[in-house]
Sequence to fold (434 residues):
Amino acid sequence: MIPILKRVKVKLESAKLVKDTITMSLGQGFRLLIQAAYFVLIARTLGLHEYGAFVAICAMVGVLIPFTGIGGPSLLLKNVSREASLLGKYWGNGMLVVVVSGLIFTCALVVLGPLMSGIQLRAAILSIAISELLLARIAELASFAFTALGQMRNTALLNVLISLTRLGCVVVLSLVKPHPTVQQWCTAILCGSLITCAYSVWCISRLASVSIDLSVLRKELGDGAYFAVGAAAATFYNDIDKTMLARMSSLGATGIYGAAYRIVDTCMAPIKAMTAAAYAETFRRGAKGVEAAHKYALSLIRRAAWIGGGLFLLLFIGAPGLPFVIGSKFGPSVEALRWLAPLPFLRSWHYFLGDALSGAGLNATRTIIQVIVALVNIGLNLYFIRQWSWRGAAWTSLMCDGMLAVAFAVALNISKKRAPTRLIPDVTVPELSA
Fold:
């Protein structure tokens, strides 16, 4: 009888994952279309040079996004996915750290940003910094809260909303100003983020009473720092190349590479949806040990790798159509897109393997690997970008994503041999209605 019950349980869990993945995929699909719309609008309006400046600013701000909140969203998801009653405490702690760290990083970027990127647009940097380091991070915190509670529909809705509000503000701007500047685009994005942030705070306030527990915050600051540093390393090897291109090559090269990379990142929506849908369950499985987390990750990879392979073919074959969508000036982006086309397949492996390490309590190991790869990425870019401009950045991206997949796989296999399976009962998470 017990084997039958186990099979039923596995089928129910699989059905829930499929349902959650479909929900997140629909949300990511709508978000993809919305992002594509304002991406095309901005690229066509700004042109190659100014779009390169816009990409460089966003990449520079993006490097600091993971440090904002010091891992607060991941700590919230980790703890609330196991005990829903902790929502108010972790929401309050998360908000406090996001606001304090976000303000510090925003001020630092306004002062140091022009020196780092060579782009003397402080007002534009300020707008993007507030949007991404404060407002969008509060919305992200709310998104993680919904995920921890199993409310994937609300997670998907919030992810769509942040892109939809930005698109609305961008469209209004384009109607008022036929030829907006980079600063005006950044201001429109800021307005959209403000709307989503206000909605996020309102939603969570209906689910739990906000409280701040400084003792818990101090106790988990180290674990949160691991999440933050790991995510920051991931952002470094994903985005620092664009800032380096702007500084070491040209804004034209940054625009070529940035447009291709944006297409790849947008097409990652199905895999990101599966990652988001499975993230809370990864922590639950990880409570039983490395073996359980690794096994779960491999079951997800078997599905995600097919998606990643399909995206590779789609991007490689469909690349010539890119200039017809965003403008003839982006013709060189066709080659860049083909160089970057394997990224979805590589990421369909290391996304889930990395999450398995975090879920099994090996976040320090994951962080160390990510930091090493980030340093390798910077070193390779320093050489390759000088020699081959955006092509060097593309080669570096492929090598570093491959390194991550291999390193995570090796780390999991070593950890399985060292750590015994922990017999911890399943954790049930009650759903709260929004």
